[in-house]
C-alpha cells in the first residue's frame, strides 16, 4: 500500500472514531509521511501524532487507532477499524434525580464519548394536561405566559400621526412644523386610523368533568390577564362568576388562591346554557362581548336544555368578533361532538380547538392574535332531517368570517 493511501485511510479511521481532523492537518500528515518515509514505525507514529492530534485527551484514542490500523506491518495496514465508544446521556433536568446522574464521575474523563442532550419541554408540549404533575404545571407556566401575551388588534376611532400621504392632512401639525422652516411646509404630516387591542373574554368551565384540565387552563387564563390588557375572565359551572380582579395579581399562587376563594361552584355541576344566558344579560350584550374575541374553555357537557344553549350561543355570536371553543376532549381518538351542549353550540362557533396540551394552547394563542385567516368549525347541524350534533357528511368544514 502506498503512502498516500496509508495517509487517507488512517485519517478516515481517526475521523470515524470521533477525532476531529481538519483538512489542513491531513495535508500536513501526508507531507510528513513523504519526509520521514513509512519504513520505521516510530516515524509514522510521531508524524501522525504531531500533525493530527490537537487535544491531549485524544492521545489515548489515537494510540488505539494507530495500533489497530497499522498492526505489526506498516505496509499491510487494516483499512477497517472498529472502535466501541461509550455513550453518555446528559439531560437538562434539574430535578431530584440530578444526584443520581453524578454517579458516573468515576469514569475516565479521557474516554471518548457521545453526548446527547434532550429537553423535556418538547415532551410537555404534546403531553395531556390530565397527566401533568404539579411540578410540570409550574414548569410550563412560563411557556404559557409567553404565549398568552399575544393579542389581536382592531381599528380605533382615535387617529394617529403618520407621514403616509394616503391619510388625511394634519394641518395644525404641518403648520407648526413649517414655522421652524420660515413658513415652508418642508415636512408634511397626515393622520390615519389607529389600532387598539381587541378585548378577549375567557369563559372557563370549572365543573367536575373539567377538573383535570381546569387546573392547567386556569394558569393559561391567569397568564393572559397579567400579560396583556383588555382581558376579562369568568367561570361557568352552575353559576357565573367574574374573577378578573382576583387573577390580576402577578403572583400565580396568590391569584389562583383568591380565584378559588371567590368561586363557590368548583368541581360542581354544569349548566352552560343558563350561565351563558347570565353572561349575555349582565355583561356580554351590554358591551363586553361586542367586537371581542370570546373563548369558551369547556368539554361541552351540559345538563340544561339544548334549546337554551342554542339560543344563547346565537345571541353571543351576533355581537362577538370571533367565537372560539376550546374542548380538551377533541383530541380523543374517534371523538364526535355528541354531548347535547356541544352539539347545540357547534353551528355558532368560528374555531373549534383542542385544549388538552401545551401545543393546542399555542394554536389558541395564534387565534387570539388573529394569525389565522380561516376559522375551523363543524358543519351546521340540526334541521328537520338532521338531529342536533350530527355534522352533515361527517366531515369538518373550514369557514371564513367577514372582518
| Gyration radius, in Å | 34 Å
The helicity comes to 40-55%
General shape = flat
Largest sheet features: 6 strands, mixed
The percentage of residues in β strands lies in 15-25%
CATH topology (fold) name of the largest domain:
Rossmann fold
Would you count the extended β strands for me? 13
Span between termini: 77 Å
Provide the succession of SSEs: HHHHEHEHHEEHEEHEEHHEHEHEHEE
Number of helices: 14
Describe the structure.
The protein has 403 residues and is an alpha/beta fold. The protein folds into three domains: 3-76; 141-146 and 198-383, von Willebrand factor, type A domain (Rossmann fold), CATH 3.40.50; 156-196, no CATH class. It has 14 helices and 13 strands. It has helices at residues 3-17, 23-36, 41-52, 59-70, 98-101, 120-126, 134-147, 171-179, 211-227, 252-262, 272-288, 306-319, 340-345, 358-368; strands at residues 87-89, 114-116, 153-162, 168-169, 190-197, 200-205, 231-236, 240-242, 293-297, 322-327, 351-354, 375-378, 396-399. A six-stranded mixed β-sheet has the order 8-7-6-9-10-11. The protein has a three-stranded antiparallel β-sheet with strand order 3-5-4. A two-stranded parallel ribbon has the order 1-2. A hairpin with a 3-residue loop joins β7 (231-236) and β8 (240-242). The longest helix is centred in the middle third of the chain and has 17 residues, at 211-227. It is flat and about 100 Å long.
Amino acid at each position: 500500500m502506498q503512502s498516500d493511501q496509508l495517509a487517507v485511510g488512517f485519517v478516515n479511521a481517526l475521523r470515524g472514531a470521533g477525532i476531529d481532523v481538519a483538512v489542513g492537518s491531513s495535508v500536513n500528515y501526508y507531507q510528513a509521511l513523504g519526509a520521514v518515509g513509512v519504513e520505521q514505525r516510530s516515524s509514522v507514529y510521531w508524524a501522525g501524532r504531531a500533525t493530527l492530534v490537537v487535544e491531549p485527551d485524544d492521545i489515548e484514542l489515537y494510540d488505539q487507532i494507530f495500533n489497530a490500523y497499522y498492526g505489526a506491518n506498516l505496509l499491510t495496514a487494516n483499512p477497517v477499524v472498529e472502535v466501541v465508544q461509550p455513550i453518555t446521556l446528559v439531560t437538562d433536568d434539574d430535578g431530584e434525580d440530578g444526584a443520581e446522574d453524578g454517579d458516573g464521575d468515576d469514569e475516565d474523563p479521557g474516554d471518548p464519548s457521545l453526548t446527547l442532550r434532550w429537553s423535556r419541554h418538547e415532551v410537555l408540549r404534546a403531553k395531556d394536561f390530565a397527566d401533568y404533575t404539579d411540578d410540570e404545571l409550574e414548569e410550563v407556566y412560563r411557556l404559557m405566559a409567553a404565549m398568552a401575551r399575544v393579542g389581536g388588534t382592531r381599528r380605533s376611532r382615535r387617529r394617529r400621526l403618520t407621514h403616509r400621504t394616503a391619510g388625511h392632512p394634519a394641518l395644525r401639525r404641518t403648520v407648526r412644523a413649517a414655522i421652524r422652516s420660515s413658513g415652508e411646509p418642508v415636512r408634511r404630516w397626515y393622520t390615519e386610523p389607529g389600532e387598539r387591542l381587541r378585548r378577549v373574554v375567557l369563559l372557563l368551565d370549572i365543573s367536575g368533568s373539567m377538573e383535570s384540565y381546569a387546573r392547567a387552563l386556569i394558569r393559561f387564563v391567569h397568564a393572559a390577564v397579567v400579560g396583556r390588557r383588555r382581558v376579562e375572565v369568568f367561570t361557568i359551572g352552575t353559576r357565573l362568576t367574574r374573577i378578573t380582579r382576583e387573577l390580576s395579581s402577578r403572583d400565580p399562587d396568590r391569584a389562583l388562591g383568591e380565584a378559588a376563594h371567590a368561586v363557590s361552584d368548583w368541581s360542581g355541576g354544569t349548566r352552560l346554557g343558563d350561565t351563558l344566558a347570565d353572561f349575555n344579560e349582565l355583561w356580554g350584550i351590554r358591551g363586553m362581548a361586542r367586537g371581542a374575541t370570546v373563548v369558551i374553555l369547556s368539554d361541552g357537557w351540559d345538563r340544561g336544555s339544548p334549546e337554551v344553549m342554542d339560543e344563547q350561543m346565537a345571541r353571543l355570536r351576533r355581537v362577538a368578533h370571533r367565537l372560539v371553543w376550546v374542548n380538551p376532549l377533541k383530541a380523543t381518538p374517534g371523538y364526535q361532538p355528541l354531548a347535547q351542549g356541544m352539539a347545540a353550540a357547534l353551528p355558532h362557533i368560528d374555531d373549534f380547538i383542542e385544549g388538552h396540551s401545551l401545543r393546542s394552547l399555542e394554536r389558541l394563542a395564534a387565534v387570539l392574535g388573529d394569525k389565522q385567516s380561516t376559522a375551523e368549525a363543524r358543519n351546521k347541524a340540526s334541521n328537520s332531517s338532521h338531529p342536533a350534533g350530527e355534522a352533515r357528511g361527517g366531515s369538518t368544514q373550514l369557514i371564513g368570517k367577514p372582518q
